[in-house]
Structure to design on (305 residues):
């Protein structure tokens, strides 16, 4: 039996309208064309689908079973068609985000919260488990955006600049290094360095500062939470390097001090990596705009007394 969606739609329309004439009008068919369609379907099925001597026209037992199939299948098809139309119009899609920076949660979550309210039809998710292999996952289509400060040239990937930040040393307020006014790589050689649980190559303090100078900290301790790390630092249990926008919220803490890396400080840029083919998607344009403006607004708010 060769069953098509038009057969299901016709069967449902006849049942709902109670006759061929009104059903044909609803389906934008001639009554003759609809009658021939139903007759051909009955010949394929080998059974009658309607009790033709009744008014209004009623379904037979076989017709009722086919109607139940229509009532299950047609709403699913309608939902899929609506979703495809939304995708075509740019209202729907998928935005799965991966991060190569542990601390990016602080500004990214408010951005995505705003985004989901504006684009409720977009499938939104954060894929933290892919953090160490995020860019290859982007190329493979497993995620749709990667937040990274280390762009790598990859075919089909575009890097959109978001904002600049300064990796900054944070240490106890009574630390002897404060008198120097800035930190050099050698200053970490006798320190316990506290970092987030990330691959060493993704940590600015190693990739941009210590490794090029060939310096290793005396000890390396991994802490998951910023608040815990800062408590240990205030207690003299170690030092850390964090983005300046993370530390602005703690600038008034009298137990902590901040030093630039090097006499001139260090400046890094955060990027959103997306597939080139997705750049012009309306929802992608919007989330990129939010990712540039919302962190700046948050930083300005933190700078207010």
């Amino acid at each position: 039996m060769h069953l098509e969606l038009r057969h299901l739609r016709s069967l449902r329309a006849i049942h709902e309208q109670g006759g061929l004439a009104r059903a044909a009008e609803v389906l934008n068919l001639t009554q003759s064309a609809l009658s021939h369609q139903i007759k051909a379907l009955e010949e394929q099925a080998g059974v009658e689908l309607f009790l033709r001597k009744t008014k209004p026209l009623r379904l037979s037992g076989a017709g009722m079973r086919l109607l139940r199939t229509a009532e299950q299948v047609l709403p699913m098809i309608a939902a899929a068609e609506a979703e495809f139309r939304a995708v075509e119009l740019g209202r729907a899609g998928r935005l799965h985000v991966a991060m190569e920076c542990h601390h990016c949660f602080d500004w990214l979550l408010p951005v995505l919260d705003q985004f989901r309210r504006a684009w409720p039809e977009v499938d939104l998710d954060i894929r933290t488990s892919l953090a160490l292999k995020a860019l290859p996952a982007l190329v493979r289509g497993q995620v749709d955006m990667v937040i990274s400060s280390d762009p790598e040239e990859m075919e089909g990937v575009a890097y959109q600049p978001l904002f600049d930040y300064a990796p900054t040393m944070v240490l106890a307020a009574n630390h002897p290094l404060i008198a120097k006014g800035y930190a050099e790589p050698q200053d970490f050689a006798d320190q316990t360095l506290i970092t987030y649980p990330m691959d060493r190559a993704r940590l600015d303090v190693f990739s941009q500062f210590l490794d090029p100078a060939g310096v290793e900290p005396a000890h390396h301790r991994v802490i998951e939470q910023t608040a815990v790390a800062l408590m240990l630092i205030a207690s003299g249990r170690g030092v850390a390097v964090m983005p300046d926008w993370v530390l602005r919220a703690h600038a008034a803490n009298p137990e902590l001090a901040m030093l630039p890396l090097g006499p001139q400080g260090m400046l890094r840029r955060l990027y959103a990596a997306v597939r080139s083919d997705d750049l012009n998607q309306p929802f992608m344009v919007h989330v990129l705009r939010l990712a540039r403006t919302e962190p700046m607004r948050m930083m300005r708010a933190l700078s207010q007394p």
User: Anything to note?
Assistant: The mean pLDDT is 87. The domain at 167-260 is CATH 3.40.190.10 (D-Maltodextrin-Binding Protein; domain 2). The CA atoms of residues 49 and 62 lie 6 Å apart.
